[in-house]
Give the backbone structure.
Amino acid sequence: MADGFVIETTDLHKRYDGVEALRGLTLAVPAGSICGFLGRTGAGKTTTIKILLGMAAPTSGRAAVFGLPADSPAASVDIRRRTGFVGDDKGLYDAMTVRGIVRHTASFYPKWNREMEERYLRRFELPAERGIKGLSRGMRTKLAMLLAICRGADLLVLDEPTTGLDPAATEDVLQALVGHAAEQGTTVFFSSHQLGDVEQIADHVVIIDRGRTAVAGSLDDLKQGYRRIQLVFDGDAPAYTFQTKGVERVKRSGRVMTVLSSAGIDGVLGEARALNPVSTDSTPVTLKDIFLDTVAVED
Amino acid sequence: MLLQHAFLETRWRFLIGLVLLPVSAAFVALGYPQVAALTQSVTPTPDTALGRDIAEAIEMAKTFYSYVWSQWFEQNGAQLAAFFAVIIGTGGLLSQSAAARLFTLSLPVSREQLLGARAAAGLGQVLALTLVPALVIVVVSPIVAHSFPVLDALAYALCAFAGCAVFFSLAFLFSSMFSNVWAPVVLTLCAGSALRMLDTITNGSGGFSLFEMLHGESYFRGHGLPWLMLLVSAGVSAALIYAGIRHMARQDF
Amino acid sequence: MIFRPNAASGVPIYLQLMEQVKHAIETGALRSGDQLPGIRPLAEELVINPNTVAKAYRELEHEGVIELRHGAGAFVSGAAREKKLTDRLRAGQTIVASAVDKLRSRGVTEAEIRRLFEAELTKLTGKGDQRG
C-alpha cells in the first residue's frame, strides 16, 4: 500500500438548491488507517462521501481519492473500481437472492476474490439461496459488506454501517472490518453516529461540523490531548480566564470549576494550582466528550 | 454484466409483453375464420360513421392478409407495442429505489455506459416485442389454412420497431428529467396523442406520419418500405436517447 | 487472551492491552518463551485497530516484557527479565494493597479510592514525567 493519503479534500464546497452543504471542507485520510467520520446529522457527511464517489460534483474545491480527481468522470470510474462502498440503503436488490447479487456484482470487478466470497458467506452465515427480501437488517449489512470486501478494493467507504444493528451484529461487522483491514492493508473510511464503535476500531478521526472540518487527527493524539479537570474550592469557584491555549470550556457551579482542554494540560494545571483549589481531579475524556464539545455549540 | 443489469431492471415489463403480444397476435390470426364468416352475414348502412367503419372492416376482412394487417399491424399490435415501448422506456436511475440507485451508481462504469446499456437493452426488448408476434402470426396462420409471408412479417415488424423506438426514446429522455416513474409515461402518451391529432389534421402530411410508418402503411399499399421515414425516425430516436444520456451525465445524486 | 478492551474508559486501549499481557505473565498464564497471538488475529479477536495491537507490542518490547522476532512473531521475554518485572510488580502490589486497606478502614469508598489514585497520577504527569 503506497504511503500518503488515500482520501484528500481541499476547501471543498457544495451547494444544493441554495443550501450550502459543504463550506470549505479539508481533510486527509492516511493510507492503511481506519478513519471514523463523525458529525451531526446534516453536517455534510453523506454529501462528502457522494462527492468522493462521483455521485455528485463539487461546487468548488478539490477532492481526490488515490490521488485521482473525484470530479473527473473518467477518473471516478477508476476510483470506484478500487473502492467498496456500503451506503445507507446498502445497495441491495430486493428481488434477487444472496447468491444472485453476489454473482451479479462479481461480474463487474475483474479482481473479485472467489475464495474470499466463500469464506465470508460462511463466516457471516448468509444463506446463499435466500431472497434478499427475507434477510434481517444485520444480514443485509453483512451481505453489503461482503459485496464491498470481495471486489479487491483498496478503500472501503461505509456510511453508517452499524446504525440500527443489534450489538452482536455490530460486533460481527466491526470484526470483519478490522480483520479485513489488517489482512489486506485496506484503508477504511466510515461515517458513524456510534461513537463507541469509532472509539473501538478507528485510529484516525475526522469530525465535520456545518460543512467544515472541526477536528481531524489520530485518535490516540486526540484523546491524549483532551483532559477534563475538576477543581473544588473552599469558597465559590473564582471567575478566572485561563491563559493557556487549548482550554475549550470552563464551567463554574458553586464551589466546583470544570475545565476541558484539548491541549496544554501542563499549563492548565499550573494555572489551576495557582488558584489554590482544595482538590484537583482528573477524569478521562471519551470520544463522546470531544464530539459534544466540538459540535454542540449553541446555534 | 451491464446489459444484464439493465435488462434485469425492466424484465417484468418485458416478459409480460412477451407473453401478451404474441398471444394476442395468435388470437388475431386464429380468429380469422369466425370474422370471415361474420362479415358474410352483415350488410352495413354506409350513411353513418359507424356504418362506414364497419364497411371498411368488412373490406379488410375480405382477405386474410389485409385482415391481419388491419387488425394487428395497424391497430392492436401497434398500440400494444407502442405502449410497452413507453413503459419500458421509463424508469432508470431517477425513479429507482435508493438501494438500487446506490448499487448502480457505485459501479465502476461511466454514466454514459450505464445509460447506453439501458437504452440498448430497452431497444432490444422493444425489437423482440415487435418481431416475435409477427413471426408468431406466420407460424400459426397455417392452422387456419392460411399463410402470411415471412418477408412481409419482417417488413412490418421493422416499421413497427422504428416507430416504437421513437416512443421508447421519448420516454427515455423524459425519465432522465423526472424522478416520478409515471411522468414520462403520461408525457409520452400525450406527445403521441398530439402527433396523432396532427396526423388527422394534415392527413398524413405527405408521407411523414410517424403512425403511418409504424403501421407499415406504405408497404401494405405496395409502395415498399418507407426508407426515408425509417431513417428519420432512427435519427430522432438516437437524438432523443443522446439528449437523455447527456442530461443524466451531469446529474447530482 | 480473552478480555474486552474498554474503548471509553479513558485508558488508551494499547495500555489496557499491555496490562493484560503483564497480568497474564504475572499469573503464569503466559510463560517465558511463549508466543503471543499475531497482531492481525489478536486485533480481529478483540475487535480493535491492528495499529493499536502493534503499538502495545512495541511498548512491551521497549519495556523488555516481550521480544519481537522478525518474521516469527512476539514472544515473552527470558526468565531474568520476567522475574525482575514480576518482582517489581509484586512489590508494587503489596504497597497498593496496604494503602487500599488503610483507606478502606477510614471509610473511603472504592470509587473515591480510584479517584484519589487518578488525581495523584495526574499530578505526577503535571509535574513532568516521574515514571519510575
